[in-house]
Write a structure and sequence with these properties.
The chain is built from 2 helices and 4 strands. With about 55 residues, it is of the alpha+beta class. The chain has one domain: Alpha-Beta Plaits (2-Layer Sandwich), CATH 3.30.70.20. The strands form 2 sheets. Strands 1-4 form a two-stranded antiparallel sheet. A two-stranded antiparallel sheet has the order 2-3. A hairpin with a 2-residue loop joins strand 2 and strand 3. It starts with a strand and ends with a strand.
Amino acid sequence: MDKYVITGNCVGCGECDWHCPNGAITESGDKYAITSDCTGCGECVHMCPVGAIIKK
């Protein structure tokens, strides 16, 4: 199963966090990060307005 990471291109909007069904996204300073709880569903990828989420 694919896992995802949030790159430095994150603008800190929080859309990914809001839409993660597993609660696997957390604030990390002024940006967001994906935790080890990620199940690889990919919901966050489709919600990111700047394309900052990529497969690990």
